[in-house]
Amino acid sequence: MKRARRARIVATLGPATSGEAAIRALFEAGVDVFRLNFSHGSQADHAQRLASIRRLEAEFGRPIGVLLDLQGPKLRLGTFTGGKAQLNAGSRFRLDLNPAPGDGQRAPLLHPEIFEALKPGTELLLDDGKLRLHVDACGAEFADTTVINGGPISDRKGVNVPSVVLPLSPLTPKDREDLEFGLGLGVDWVALSFVQRPEDITEARAIIGDRAWIMAKLEKPAAIHELAAIVALADGIMVARGDLGVELPPEEVPELQRLIVRSCRQAGKPVVVATQMLESMIHAPVPTRAEVSDIATAIYDGVDAVMLSAESASGAYPMEAVAMMNRIIARVEASPSYRAGIEASHTPAEATTADAVCCSLGRVAALIAPAATITYTSSGFTSLRAARERPAAPILSLTPEVNTARRLALVWGVHAVLVDQIHDVGEMIRCANRTAVIEGFAGAGADVVIVAGLPFGEPGTTNLLHVSRIAGATTRGT
After folding, report:
1. Does the active-site annotation cover 217?
2. How far does CA 169 lie from the centroid of its chain?
3. Of all helices (H) and strands (E), which one includes residue 143?
4. Does 6 participate in catalysis according to the annotation?
5. What CA–CA distances, in Å, run from 15 to 220, 258, 259?
6. Are residues 224 and 318 in the same domain?
7. End of a domain among 138, 160, 182?
8. Residue 383 lies in a domain
9. Which member of 157, 217, 220, 241 is catalytic?
10. Is 344 a domain residue?
């Protein structure tokens, strides 16, 4: 079962799509990677969903990626007398460590790490940015503020501190427990929330090792200042526009999205654009035209994947949302301007043997228009470097490692197939030709371009390019 499109679809599972039949319907509608959002649901819920995904994978014979999305630190106010209060613009308002219920003059904020980082002049955002406070004075246990934008406030609303780096690990005790649970189940990607600095990736890597690939969620302004280092350390990046849009002026988010996408494409790291892509389809069977344009813009920019959150987890039209996203991607990729834009936005490769080979792959593919470009990889490295070049021909990725095949389900243009271990070049060429025919990419007389690394099984050794013509039992190669 191969996808005709290059960009991938990530869909979140939730109450609306918990059953095996629903997960199957989402996959058939176009989902490539399923997201398990550990901010909601029990570990047992997620285990059941992952088991359904693996049964589906075995039935269709196509690797399916699973993304574990960790909750991360949640900074929230305490409670209010009567459950709510009104903050008026221009009034004074205190935040402190006193757990007593708050009112219109003060509220509990039981996060000493916030007070540790605050300085006079800092701004605080409450309830997804609906209320804005200016810090006039602060100490280790309090902050006296002036209300800039007022309004109603209620129990346990979120707090954002956009302009400072908080002394917080991205991994809470709950996250660490969920992480070990998910890794034990065999998830393929781990989305790390609340990333502020490169050290956050290093901390997660020390726990995860090579058991999964790490996706850094960029939702904090501090992370943008460390973008290059974070992209270099992570295996992939998610543009988490929801929190970015809270902590930054909304008009800055589109520019940052393009900056992040360009940085990831230059580095050859998968990038996912997320949040409110088809928000209206939570309640309506059709999207707004603005949402369609939003998805199309991301695809024109060459993202690896776009993601659905509440649309597929709890919305009324999850299958319709996936089908709509599938059609939008297919339509954009069929446009002549799409290919022209991808080529125009391509950046120079690194001066390495692997990139030299993959650059040649892109050039050869442009000249001879092969039926497929074929990568043979154990770690996924060769396929990632090939995908960086965004070749016009689909990328058929052959790997003996099931974990690698599942992880590559997120990567632009890659159709991963599990094959036996290869021992020599001749065996690899025969396997590539045979698989290209079986998977429906090529027929007799078609050319394929094969890229691999010698010796086989050694990560990061991409150094071979071979052009082969499929002609029954024989091949012509150069």
Report:
1. yes
2. 20
3. strand 142-149
4. no
5. 28, 33, 34
6. yes
7. 160
8. yes
9. 217
10. no
154 & 303 share domain: no
- Greatest alpha-carbon pair distance for the chain in Å reads 82
Q: Which of 8, 35, 106, 390 is catalytic?
A: 35
Total domain count, the chain: 3
What CATH number has the domain bearing residue 153? 2.40.33.10
Task: Indicate which residue of 24, 54, 76, 94 is catalytic.
Answer: 76
| 346 falls within a domain | no
Cα gap 421→132, rounded to integer Å: 58
d(CA 376, CA 383): 8
What is the domain extent for residue 192? 8-72+169-338
Check whether residue 334 and residue 438 sit in a common domain. Answer: no
35 is catalytic: yes
Cβ(38)–Cβ(46) under 8 Å? Answer: yes
Structural tokens at position 119: 């300085």
Q: Is 461 a catalytic residue?
A: no
User: Of the residues 12, 122, 275, 377, which is catalytic?
Assistant: 275
Q: Are residues 307 and 386 in the same domain?
A: no
First to last CA, the chain: 30
Q: Are residues 258 and 114 in the same domain?
A: no
Last residue of a domain, one of 291, 310, 338: 338
Q: Give yes or no: residues 325 and 372 share one domain.
A: no
Q: What is the CATH number of the domain that holds 312?
A: 3.20.20.60
Q: Are 105 and 191 in the same domain?
A: no
**How far is it, in rounded angstroms, from Cα 137 to Cα 149?**
18
**Among candidates 450, 470, 472, 471, which has minimal Cα distance to 462?**
450
Pairing of the two strands 84-87 and 92-96: unpaired
Nearest to 432 by CA among 412, 456, 448: 448
pLDDT in tens, the chain (478 residues): 789 899 999 999 999 999 999 999 999 999 999 999 999 999 999 999 999 999 999 999 999 999 999 999 999 999 999 999 999 999 999 999 999 999 999 999 999 999 999 999 999 999 999 999 999 999 999 999 999 999 999 999 999 999 899 999 999 999 999 999 999 999 999 999 999 999 999 999 999 999 999 999 999 999 999 999 999 999 999 999 988 889 899 899 999 999 999 999 999 999 999 999 999 999 999 999 999 999 999 999 999 999 999 999 999 999 999 999 999 999 999 999 999 999 999 888 888 998 899 888 888 888 999 999 999 999 999 999 999 999 999 999 999 999 999 999 999 999 999 999 988 999 999 999 999 999 999 999 999 999 998 888 788 788 999 999 997 644 444 4
CATH of the domain at 434: 3.40.1380.20
Q: Which of 137, 84, 140, 72 is nearest to 111 (CA)?
A: 140
- Domain identity same for 450 and 359: yes
